[in-house]
From TrEMBL:
Gene Ontology terms, MF aspect: hydrolase activity
UniProt domain 3-keto-alpha-glucoside-1,2-lyase/3-keto-2-hydroxy-glucal hydratase: residue ranges: 146-309
Domain of life the protein comes from: Bacteria
UniProt keyword list: Signal
Signal peptide coordinates: 1-25
Protein name: 3-keto-alpha-glucoside-1,2-lyase/3-keto-2-hydroxy-glucal hydratase domain-containing protein
Amino acid sequence: MTFFKNSLRILICTMIMSATLGLHAQKSYPLEGRWDLEMDFMGRTAPSWLEIRHSGNATLIGRFVFAFGSARPIAEVKTYGDNKFTFSIPNQWEPKGSDMIFHGELTDGKLKGTLIYTDGSVLNWTGVKAPKLAYTENPKWDKPLNIFNGKDLTGWHVDGEKNQWVVKDGILTSPESGSNLITDEKFEDFKLHVEFRYPKGSNSGIYLRGRYELQIEDDKGLDPMDIYIGGVYGFLEPNENAAKDAGEWQTYDITLIGRRVTVTLNGKTVITDATIPGITGGALDSMEGEPGPFMIQGDHGPIEYRSFVVTPRKK
């Protein structure tokens, strides 16, 4: 009899725990989700990104992407009052100083607030919920477009005063640090084929829709990371490092549909149908629901391209 009573107690306790866990899993927090931000920074609107989610019963954690750098973990998002919150972020590439202090408020489905920068200055920002980007299975593709003609910069423009980009012998090159190079045309879903080469120790990248950086860096032999070649910077880690030696021609083949990306580096698929959570540091804007251009990073190290072919999805 004692055995059956103990078994009954265990069963009841298990049911109560399951019900309790179920309630916790179903509880939602208004601040939870992914947010596309715009921040007043250095006299311009700087795109940023914020993710807030719960961990355990009541703790809120998250990730934050500033105008530059990779996604930074938020150890705890503290809430107070009605839909108000705060958290701190240690500096990454910012000037030395204090941690950055983030204050925000949710009003009518939108966020707004201030960021105390490392030098003590106060930046204003606003945010909206990041859109759900539709995924099309088995899409039909349009004709491939050679958006680099092998002769000049027709169809491209720079984002700064210094245009260091040149075309010589059919190769597009940035021999030194300067401006990023951006396509005039914007794209939604696409396939992209790129052939590129970099010298030893160089660092560059390609921004898909001008928002999601696919890293290019001299990383051969290193363990794969989301900040190394083959990764979507700070978010998606490649399953292997398929880089060739510096000085060799290499290839990227990328498919982006909605938020879902597949990346093939030098014939090896290193990311398969993975979801890009949000914009990466250095993005042109945070308007994720709109088509965007390609942007080639030119403000880091030297880089060369001999092919840049885009195949848009048929609408």
